[in-house]
Write a sequence for this structure.
């Protein structure tokens, strides 16, 4: 959203060393009525809006792993996750200061639990 209300702080903080070096910032919890999903950040970077960072279909498991490794290689920091073909990811994206670019965070699913 142009007023900065959707992920507005993302572009201000995600590429900041103080933010991405704080482990508390790297855990994302998503809760539905039935489940709680916990994700951990594995990449954060700025990229052109034309860059393919939202691909959803792959011809093979290896193509998927190659894609994940490409995302990881763009990151301003190596968060130490070894990408696997079974990884499920969540992507957050917002306009960068330059509206032709995007600030992107990718997180990998690390845990699921039943909501109470």
């Amino acid at each position: 959203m142009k007023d900065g209300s959707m992920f507005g702080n993302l572009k201000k903080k995600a590429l900041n060393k103080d933010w991405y070096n704080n482990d508390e910032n790297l855990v994302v919890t998503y809760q539905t009525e039935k489940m709680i999903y916990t994700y951990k950040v594995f990449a954060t970077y700025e990229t052109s809006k034309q860059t393919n960072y939202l691909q959803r279909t792959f011809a093979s498991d290896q193509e998927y792993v190659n894609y994940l490794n490409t995302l990881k290689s763009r990151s301003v920091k190596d968060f130490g996750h070894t990408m696997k073909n079974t990884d499920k990811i969540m992507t957050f994206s917002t306009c960068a200061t330059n509206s032709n670019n995007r600030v992107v965070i990718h997180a990998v699913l690390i845990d699921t639990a039943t909501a109470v």
Observations:
- The CA atoms of residues 34 and 116 lie 8 Å apart.
- The mean pLDDT is 90.
- Helices lie at 8-13, 17-20, 61-74.
- The longest strand covers residues 35-48.
